[in-house]
Structure formats: structure tokens, C-alpha cells
Amino acid sequence: MGEEEKQKTIEAWNKHVILTNSKRKYMGFSSDAEADFCDQFRNGVLAHDKLTKKEKLEILITAKLK
User: Fold this and answer.
1) Tens-level pLDDT at each residue, the chain (66 residues)
2) How far is 58 from 38, CA to CA, in rounded Å?
């Protein structure tokens, strides 16, 4: 189950990156909101009970949050 959860989490991050890039393009970007989202995302990954420590680390490295 961990690999599936890891993939879902990485896909969610990739969608966020696409949305953030779109907001930057149209000037609807808030760096404070982005920082809050990154903190919440990182904390959510770390608190996830179906991922191993290795999978959590892979996700955070992929998202450049580690």
C-alpha cells in the first residue's frame, strides 16, 4: 500500500506545482500562502501512517522540501 500512497502524494505535489506556476504567470501568487502550503504538505507527509520512512524521505526530496 505504501508505494500507491507515495505515488498519489507525488501526483498531488506535481498538481500543486503546475497550479503555482500558473498563479505566478497571472500574478495571483502569494509567497506566504506558498510557504504555508509547503509546511502543511511536509507535515502531512511526515504524519502519514501508510508510508515508510524511506518513502516519506523520497517524497520530500522529490518535492524539494528536505
Assistant:
1) 578 888 999 999 999 888 887 777 777 677 888 888 899 999 999 999 888 999 999 999 999 888
2) 16
- Best CA proximity match to 57, nearest among 14, 2, 12, 19: 2
Rounded Cα gap, residues 37 and 23, in angstroms: 14
Say if CB 48 and CB 9 are below 8 A apart.
Answer: yes
| CA distance linking residue 41 with residue 26, whole number of Å | 24
Cell numbers 501512517 label which residue? 49
pTM (two decimals): 0.70
CA angle in degrees (0–180, nearest 5) for 64-45-39: 60
